[in-house]
Amino acid sequence: VAAVPEGLPAVITITLAIGVQRMAARHAIIRRLPAVETLGSTSVICSDKTGTLTRNEMTARRIVTADHELVVEGVGYEPVGSFLVGTEKIASPPPVAHHLVRCAVLCNDARLLEISGQWHVEGDPMEGALVALAMKAGVGPDEHRRNWERIDEIPFDAEHRFMASLHRAPEEDHVIFVKGAPERLLDMCDREARLDGDAPLDKAYWTDRIAEAASHGERVLGFASKPATAGDLEFSHVETGLVFLGLAGFIDPPREEAIAAVAECRSAGIAVKMITGDHAATATAIAHQLGLAENPKVITGAELEAIDDADLPKIAEETTVFARTNPEHKLRIVRALQADGDIVAMTGDGVNDAPALKQADVGIAMGRKGTEAAKQASQMVLVDDNFATIVAAVHEGRTVFDNIQKVISWTVPTNGGLAIAIIAAMLLGLTIPATPVQILWINMITTVTLGLVLAFEPSEPGVMQRPPRRPDTSLLTGFLLWRIAFVSLLFVAGAFGTYAWAMSRGLDIETARTMVVNVLVVLQIFYLFNVRFLHQTSLTLAGALGTKPVLIALTAVVFAQLAFTYAPLMQTLFDTRPVAITDGLIILATGVLLMVILEIEKILFRRLGFLDDVPAPTALANAR
Question: How far apart are CA 549 and CA 532, in angstroms?
């Protein structure tokens, strides 16, 4: 009973469960309990951009045609705003821009709904922004969709990066409308629309305009169309012969809380890597706004495919932004980072993201836009799809790991001290300083109360200023192994010293044993206050006051121990005797002495660099 910390597995499980509860309160649902601890050692977070790092509140801000560039006023999905050419407001968009807007609303599945005076999107946010754009231009989406009946469609897919739809025009003609990644559409077009008629495609001009819009952090979509005949819509119908209508640029501002969360990650030595399907320039602009790195390195999906698996780990470590990627690229990136020794958290929402989510050390699915397949493949689900929630979960994961270490470093020495005292007494032929039933009392009263409160400990200051724990680091660090042995010996010294002191004064053996039990409980109480702060001094106001669970447990133990010592029934059950007030004060002084010794030990170990409480090196944070 003395040697085996039988309550330790239960307390560790409770510690993990409390971490799950705290994360749930911060909108992170843990699906697998060990993920709580893994989060605490995360060294790289690979995150989607739209909706996670950004607000996912798309607004069409710019329309570019071969003849004009229009700025669109308005914010969010409210269909109110004017069109400007330069600084001049215009009543309606020019014909080519109007045709582009028609393409945008017909090759589109979203709807805008006004609920209690607020406009909401039913469908994809970017398509919702296009519906709002059409309404600003006077192109009624419902009316146009009735008059331009959709005959067939090719849904958007990350592999081909466009959506196409075939429509019957009011004049009984048929038209194909296409929207998608502009560089993909340019490869499918051979002409461009102008006010004076179609002209050969000026690909260099459009490439420059795409780069210009993307450099402002705008997400860019291209639009094209072509006449068609009735029938089914096939890929062969859109691979060539399209007329490029122009571009639309969208803004999706970064979340303010994501900017703060990224800064917190950098201070904690955690790399944040953006993986997005957006244009490289758009992703780079957002990366600068978020502060992902001083000079973020960018690689596109096409460049990624040309890199050999053996060379990818080093490149992936140095890269901040992966643009124009697909789900298969995510899996390669995760494997490359893990090959370099990183603990990787990866976000995803689609069915095709499931392999990457399962491969990651912590797969994180989106709660709002995530598919059921993504959620089933993940260890954690973000209720609010917010990057800041991931960082909060990492913070909580580090706290849980600290608390597990505290539970172990408190439980094992207190049990070890008892066990060593009994074994030493037997080997040396001495009287055992506590009876078996008294040892049972100590285990019962302390394990159920004092040992459990460490599971409720809040985060220590600076928990996110420490570098990530190395994957090969043992749960029992060198310092904790030393602490377990050292404290166990201090408990043995306290037990034998108290027993010898009592016997030398001529006290009976029952009184001596009662004093030993009291001194062991007092040592456990003072050691609890010391171990609450593994990485800094416990001699602070916060350390002295304790938390609500600590104070409740302390009150319960004090009253129980007073009853153990002075209540007649307890004296009969446990063969105890009353302890004099002066002896009680000396027993309390023993606890104070233990606290002083362990605080001096902390100071020495900190100066020797054996405590893992230093901030992440600046070079590491900058590299991340």
Answer: 12
> How many angstroms separate the CA atoms of 486 and 605, rounded?
13
DSSP reduced 3-state for 254? strand
Kindly provide the b/e burial profile for residues 166-187, where b requires at least 16 CB atoms within 10 angstroms of the residue's own CB: bbbeeeeebbbbbbbbbbebbe
Scored b (16 or more CB within 10 A) or e, 578-617 reads ebeeebbeebeebbeebbeebbebbeebeeeeebebeebe
Over residues 513-528, the pLDDT tens digits come to 999 999 999 999 999 9
Cα separation of 423 and 59, whole Å? 74
- Please state whether beta strands 362-366 and 321-323 pair in parallel, antiparallel, or not at all (unpaired): unpaired
Tokens of 552: 């409740």
Helix spans in 532-580 (H): 541-545, 548-566, 568-574
| Among 279, 284, 202, residue whose Cα is nearest residue 248 | 279
Could you read off the pLDDT of 124-155 as tens digits, one per residue?
Answer: 889 999 999 999 999 999 999 999 999 999 99
What are residue 54's DSSP bridge partners?
254
Other beta carbons within 10 Å of 444 = 13
Please say whether the beta carbons of 513 and 438 come within 8 A.
yes
* CA distances from residue 57 to 48, 50, 62, 108, 122 in whole angstroms, order as listed: 15, 9, 15, 17, 13
Among 180, 129, 182, residue whose Cα is nearest residue 158: 180
Cα–Cα nearest to 391, from 281, 502, 261: 261
Placement of tokens 């900190």 in the chain: 606
Q: What is the 3-state secondary structure of 2-29?
A: CCCCCCHHHHHHHHHHHHHHHHHHCCEE
Q: How many CB atoms lie within 10 A of CB 50?
A: 21
d(CA 266, CA 472): 22
Torsions phi, psi of 297, nearest 5?
-85, 135
Strands (E), 424-464: none
Tokens 């932004």 belong to 321
Chain position carrying tokens 């803004």: 251
- CA–CA dist 35, 172 (Å, integer): 59
What pLDDT band is residue 381 in, cutting at 50, 70 and 90?
very high
Structure pTM?
0.79
Among this protein's residues, is 48 annotated catalytic? yes
Catalytic residue among 48, 349, 353, 385: 48
| Three-state secondary-structure class, residue 326 | coil
**Coil, strand or helix: which one is 366?**
strand
Instruction: Report d(CA 574, CA 512) in Å as an integer.
Output: 13
User: How many angstroms from the chain centroid is the CA of residue 40?
Assistant: 10
Residues 580-603 have pLDDT tens digits of 999 999 999 999 999 999 999 988
Nearest to residue 564, comparing CAs of 553, 577, 551?
577
